[in-house]
Amino acid sequence: MAKHRGKGIAAIEYPTGMNQNGDPSQCWIKVKPDGRIDVFAGTADIGNGSKTIQAQIVAETIGVPYDWITYDNSNTDSSPVCTGTFASRATFVAGKAAEKAALQVKAKILEIAGKELEIDPADLEIIDGEVVAKGAPQTRMSISDVAAAATWGHGELITGTGAQLKPYAAIVDPETGRVDSPPHSAISYAACAAEVEVDDETGEVRVLRLQQCYDVGRAINPTQVEGQIEGGAMMGLGLGVLENCYPYYPSVEHRGGAFGSYLAPGMEEMPQIDTILIENPSQDGPYGAKGIGEMANNPQPPAIAAAVYDAIGVWITELPITPERVLRALEEKAAGKHEPRREGKKVVFDEELSVNTVSSGGIRFEVPA
Amino acid sequence: MNIVVNGTAHAIESGPLTPLLDVLREELEITGPKAGCHQGGCGACTVLVDGEPRRSCLLPVAYADGAEITTVEGLGTPESLAPIQQAFVHHYAAQCGFCTSGMLLAAQAYLDGGGTDDPEAIQEALGGHVCRCTGYAKIVDAVAAAARGESFDLTQTAVGKYTTVTTGGAT
Known about the structure:
A: alpha+beta; Aldehyde Oxidoreductase, domain 4; four-stranded mixed sheet; about 25% strand; B: alpha+beta; Ubiquitin-like (UB roll); 5 helices; 6 strands
């Protein structure tokens, strides 16, 4: 009876946004007479930081300080449409709509400033909230003055709109299934290496370290995306060794009875978490960004399962990897049962041991008639 | 019964066995304490009762009769955040925010008790609080920074521990 250490690795790919399903996001921006900027969008910030990210995108695109931006997503009636915060799309799709709207605002600011300064707008740029003549930086006009001139002098509202929509792809060749546009806007990639300690007496699996590597396209706010990855690590750890939504399924009373019977990871389960951000830019996202919100908790469970195999030589093929499952697998291995066998490069699991999935043509549980 | 919440005295009309959480949220409309599990399991309802962190969902208000209660509203104001609140902002220690008020009060009690920046001691002190978003790492970082008495630039987010690798072309 001893504790065994093992290491495992898993890699995944994940599409960003509802590709092929045409999920639009829209954004509307207006500039107040004092040059401060109001952004209206319907993206709900559920803690993923999308308000911050989209405000950053608008500030960067126009060329003004971040704190000039007021981002208003307070209601979906007065705001343009955003289909929602899902499919890892709040930065990738809605952020792109914000970038497009900001580009229109920037063009309008330069147009008004061009009239005021009597300079071709193409010869103007915006630096830190000021319109500056290229090559003649002494000729300049603050955006506050541009917005005031637009409001009180030109009788105009500086505004911009943006929308992002991945059009439906159509199958153009029924024989080959070829489609008329790429099925995905962007694919994110990630890998997780897990280090675990398994107690072969109690069956307990303790995750010691999760080293995670995510292709984020472009880290618009690196600390926030690291926060999402760290959060995903703990969710993935929970899915790997603790959390079971329906422990008694298919019993009618399959749900856990109390809050405490659903084992979400706490601080004491926190392993060493190391994060590597890969900036492998996308073509369609704002500033090359991709979305990693949903994939953040995907690679940990298989990495943990591989690490458990490395530690004690048994494959656990059902999640979560509970002490009961570890001990049962060890007993079955000792009895010579359910040994996965190697066929060339593949590891083949016993039929009975493997979890049937809907895609493999079966379901695991049947409710008695 | 009478309780003092964030320095203001209130006469309580609810029955003596009403959970303190319900008195705060429903009768006094102080909504900083969150009703998470209502079973004492998640920590979101934590308030300080005479300086000690307590699960207000399990505490009958009669037990708090005459006590001084601090909710997150009493820690600081939006214009003048308490140091622990500044630490959470600077270190990006909140995502959805539901656990945050309970975390802040437990952390405040830890600091008031002379807590250090030792990560294991912080995990011990805040271990009963569940957070589903952050993975806890940045919460521990924030409490440790506050324990060291650091000052925080709220216009900047702290730089995390990540390393970045940049590739060439777009995919």
